[in-house]
Amino acid sequence: MGDPDTGSPSLGRAAASGAGITLVSQGLRFVLQIIALVVLSRLLTPSDFGLVAMVTAILGVAEIIRDFGLSSAAIQAKELSDGERTNLFWANLGIGTACAAVAAACSPLIAAIYSRPELTGVTLALSWLFVVSGANTQFRAELSRSLRFRALAVTDVGAQALGIGAGILSAVLGFGFWSIVIQQIVFVVATCAINVVSCRWRPGWPHRGISLRRFFKFGAGLLGMQVMGYATNNVDTVALGSVWGAGPVGLYSRGYQLLMVPLSQVSNALLRVVLPVLSRVQDDDETYLRYVRRAQLLCCYGFGLSFAVAAGLSGPLVAVLFGAAWSGVAPIFALLAIGGIFRGLAQTTYWITLSKGLTGSQLRFYLLARPFMIISILAGLPWGAVGVAAGHSFAFMVEWAASLWWMGRSAGIDYRPLLRRALRSVLLVCVPAGLIALAGSMLPVPAVLRLVLGALAAAGYVVGLAVVSSTERADLRLMADFVQRATGRGRP
Length: 492
Description:
Layout: H1 9-43, H2 46-67, H3 70-76, H4 82-105, H5 107-114, H6 119-127, H7 129-145, H8 149-172, H9 178-198, H10 213-243, H11 246-280, H12 285-312, H13 314-322, H14 329-345, H15 347-355, H16 359-379, H17 384-411, H18 416-441, H19 447-468, H20 470-486
């Protein structure tokens, strides 16, 4: 009997097992990154973080170009020959090498933009990593396509631990902002090395007679989406650095990283499991929609509820993690976390776009939506990091609603049930839980106790809602079933 969500017993078991392994590994990475946030924030200054963030905000676009959407194209393809894999490897390596050369050549320009000469050395130290990442791209894609989630988990956790260890050791030894650079170098090199060792496939010499046209067609649309998305996500850092300097950028980058650590870890984990499965059942409309609805449920409770509560608890959360010297991060993070609710919900439309191969349509949407979002973010610049954070969250709230409508139009899916379900979760579950957490966090007790009491109060509200609402009870049962299946305790 086939799996009700995937249509295939083996695929259902692979998805459940992969979800469990991936979520555990991403949970470990989350813990490691929180440790790095806490420890490095106590060893380095806001200016140290701000200096490196100003460079990576610009160089990050080259990392997107280096991939060119070819990793997702390889995963999404129903069939992939060895010759195509080989040519994709050489394509990514060539693009990565070109990105490294351009980044190195632009190092004086980057230093001039911010009027900080030391950024020339930082840019040169990071630029050669594009070659390493280019070599790694198809090894990682092959592991993902083969559903080798355990190998990917080893890479993620191992490379993360090595990078963080190197960064903390460097900070203890007094390397200052170079500690963050060293952390990134060790992480990228270790990721590539472990993936190469884990992957059974090896590339040969390029094949002239094998075309990559279909992959570049898919990748070009995805590349455009990612570049537009990256510009939206990083224009805040570049603008703050140019106008307000390294200190405010350091505070903003801590708040932004506190948002993105759980968001990126969980979304990447789910993408790695969801994309191969959705791609394989994309022609079975009934099964596909059933899986999409459950995926959105995960986003509503996993992202929406978590970020709403985190926004309410921003004060004691920042105090416990970073200390009193970083109190300026709290209002920035609270505003960013509100936007994180909608960034999390938007993951569902992103999964549909990739699995249906609709990157061209989504790029057209980005060309309309992202300029509006950039303007919204920059509108807050006169009010510093807090104003930029407010503009950031407003932009992503509007973009989520518009993207859901656009996705439904492009994919031929009725978006209205998805919109209604998401709004119900936001208004009935997320917003009240966040406000209750905020009330609990304002009690006149130490920060740790305020954090615990606020979280317990929010949890109590959710449990109470489930008691009186049959819809919420049904949703929680689906969540529990997913967790059981992901950890191997439920039915295959």
